[in-house]
Every structure is written in C-alpha cells, then in structure tokens.
Amino acid sequence: MGAPAVPHLVLRLMVLLAVLLAWAPAPPAAAHGELLFSDPPADGVVQALPSRAFLTFSDAVSEIREITVVGPEGSVTNGAPSSIGPEVRQTLWEGVDGAYTLEYYVVSADGHDVRGEVHFEVGPTSTAATTGTSGDEPQASGEDPPSEGRFAAVLPAGLVLVAAAVALALLRRRRSTATGPDNG
C-alpha cells in the first residue's frame, strides 16, 4: 500500500521544481556589444594628441549617436565620426597637454545602446609611471559586471539535477520494494 505514494511524491517534487524555476531569475541574454579597446588607450598617457581617436567594439556598430573628446580647452572633436564594422573613428583637432575625456554613444548591430567614457592624458609619457594605469577596460553603462548572472544560470540547472537525483532514488527504492523477497 505504500507504493502508490511514491508517484504522488515525485509529482509533488516536479511541481515544486516548476515553481522554483518560474521564480528563479532568467539567465542573461547573449552578451551585448561593449568597448574592447581604444586609441588613445583608457587611463593611458600619450605624448601628443593624435589626429584621430579609434574605438573598437565587440560587435559591429550600426549607428553612431555621439562621439565627443573634451580636454582642458574644450572640445577637440573635428567633424563627424565614421564607422566600419566594429571600429569607430573620430578626427581630432590639436590639443594642449592635460586630461581628456572621450565619450561615446553608439548602437551595436544587436540594437542595444553602448555608451561610456575613456579617460586619458596628453603630456610627457614619463608621467605614465607616476599616474599608473589600471588595465581595466571601460564598460558600457548599464551593463552587469561579468560575475553577475552566473548564479542565475547555475541555480535552475542545479535544481533540475537535484530533482532528477531525488526522482531516480525514489524510483529505485520503489523498484527494489516491488521486487523484494515477498514478490519474487
């Protein structure tokens, strides 16, 4: 008489698993475009302001909304930016030594906005050792850090594995009870 309770227990576990999966956060979608590197480099020091700034993204750029480069004496942006695939180019005027901020706002091929800032300095390159470089790549604002979202993907998979293990253990127990010495 105890054997019919096992399928009900398995059914209850499956319903509980479905409810838990429904409440679990969804794993993140495919990665959106982000800035891979820039020239001038982020947090870098260049001896003289180059005639062009380059931004390379992880995905092709479908639209450039805005590119600005501002230094100690204001904007050094010269003309409209252009893009070819994942690379964006912006012509620059000459600029004086000092701190600069390159702001970008583009739309990647997947339709998502990618925006952020690249900070760099113009001046004697010997100051690079004193100011240091972080080595961190800039991220588009509004994006989750890479470590977030991993738990969201692991939790549902772990729940499925636990539920499957419990179901298998219950089925083995049921079969061993059904094929016991009384039924053999």
TrEMBL record:
The chain crosses the membrane at residues 151-171. Pfam families: CopC (PF04234). Residues 125-135 have a biased composition (Low complexity). The keyword S-adenosyl-L-methionine does not apply. InterPro entries: CopC/D, CopC_dom, Cu-Rt/internalin_Ig-like, Ig_E-set. Residues 32-122 form the CopC domain. The keyword Transmembrane applies. Coiled coil: none annotated. It is found in: Cell envelope. Residues 1-31 form the signal peptide. Residues 122-149 are annotated as: Disordered. Keywords: Copper, Membrane, Metal-binding, Signal, Transmembrane, Transmembrane helix. PANTHER family: INNER MEMBRANE PROTEIN YEBZ. This is CopC domain-containing protein.
